[in-house]
Amino acid sequence: MLESSGCSMLTVHGRTREQKGPLTGLADWNIIRMVKEQISIPMFANGNIMSMEDIERCMQLTKANGVMTAEGNLHNPFLFEPGIPLTWDVAYEYLELVEQYPCPPSYIRGHLFKIFHHLLNLKSNVDVREAMAVSHKPNEFRKVVQILEEKFLPFHLGHKVYLDESIGNPKEFYQDEVSYNLSLPPWLCQ
């Protein structure tokens, strides 16, 4: 029907319209593959694209001609590049662009909240989150970024041991135990 109506390319998201807000859930790439099998025009897959590995897996499973992403780019603007950048490096680059191309503080705040999502949701960063929420000028946002960098750079460099706050009582969990939690540390874009 779409092709006969003149559609020459299609993007399909793997979530249903019922999957909104707290019911978001994962995109169903099998549904995307079923659509691709029924059409002859180029098709892009969308949903759950958060890394280069996701792109490769999605294209292999769906047989799509390409992928599209939205939310993933807000958390990691370097999603399509190899490696995983430090959140503060991305934020500093973003703030340089803001100084060249001014925009409302709400835009800046929104982007920085996405970039620092994992760090700002840690209990120990409630004060930093509040500082971000009340910032209005690029230099104020830059100060918040510096606070996060100064706090978490020693962990990234290995000068301090990071105890993941999301695991209950970190002292009990990490006492002479090997951790097999392969999630990324919160100071990396993800």
From TrEMBL:
It comes from Pseudolycoriella hygida. PANTHER family: TRNA-DIHYDROURIDINE SYNTHASE (PTHR11082), TRNA-DIHYDROURIDINE(16_17) SYNTHASE [NAD(P)(+)]-LIKE (PTHR11082:SF5). The gene is Dus1l_0. GO terms for molecular function: tRNA dihydrouridine synthase activity. This is tRNA-dihydrouridine(16/17) synthase [NAD(P)(+)]-like. The keyword Cytoplasm does not apply. It comes from the Eukaryota. Keywords: NAD, NADP. Residues 1-96 form the DUS-like FMN-binding domain. The keyword Cell membrane does not apply.
